[in-house]
Amino acid sequence: MATILIRTVIIYVVLIVTMRIMGKRQLGELEISELVTTLLISEIASLPITDGSIPITHALIPLITILTLEVMLSMILLKFPKLKNLVSARPTVLIRHGTLDQKEMQRIRISLDELISEIRQSGACSPGDVDYAILEQNGKLSIILKREASAPTANDLQMKPTENGIMHALIEDGHINDYNLKLLKHDRNWLASYLQQQSKNADDIFYLGMNDGEEFYCIDKERNT
After folding, report:
1. Cα-based distances in Å from 154 to 15, 149, 151, 159, 166
2. Angle at the Cα of 164 from the Cα atoms of 161 and 169, rounded to 5 degrees
3. Closest by alpha carbon to 169, among 117, 213, 210, 113?
4. CA–CA distance, 220 with 203 (Å, rounded to integer)
5. What's residue 58's pLDDT?
6. CA-CA distance, 45 to 56, in Å (whole number)?
């Protein structure tokens, strides 16, 4: 039992490091080469865990080899973009200016029902509202609506809204996030001064966030009654 536990922990740590090196793309929508890599990794990693007679090195060596190949392939494709078509599919235009490309739909084997379902999820009512529908390399369908079918933008309404950016967590469950403080060019002394002005204590705050426009959003911890 202890041996299985130790082997599992070792494989788990190696997989975490491997996926971390491969990057966030590996955790989201996958391209063909990335999907193959992920399937191989999951299969190889499970072998020494389920079968105690297999040496753990029989999993570590292939994992490191696959990691090396994946990183090398990524570097090669960056230097020679034309080679990317050999290991992944090209983006496919299914709708152009509201007109369906039936031949492309047949070639990639996507039904009209599937396409219309994706169009509805994008907020459009019919293919005629779509300017472009593109099946991307990672299998995701990008829908670009026609201007008349899109919601008006601030430019359309001749407005100039203030850009406040995203909300950055400064305190989470009483813990101060030094990384975000530094990102916003502040420090703990500045935060302490702000909390003193608000008559608050970090330990009593469930969430405190601030956007790039220095607008705050605060949620106090619920007190047990």
Report:
1. 46, 16, 10, 5, 18
2. 155
3. 210
4. 9
5. 77
6. 9
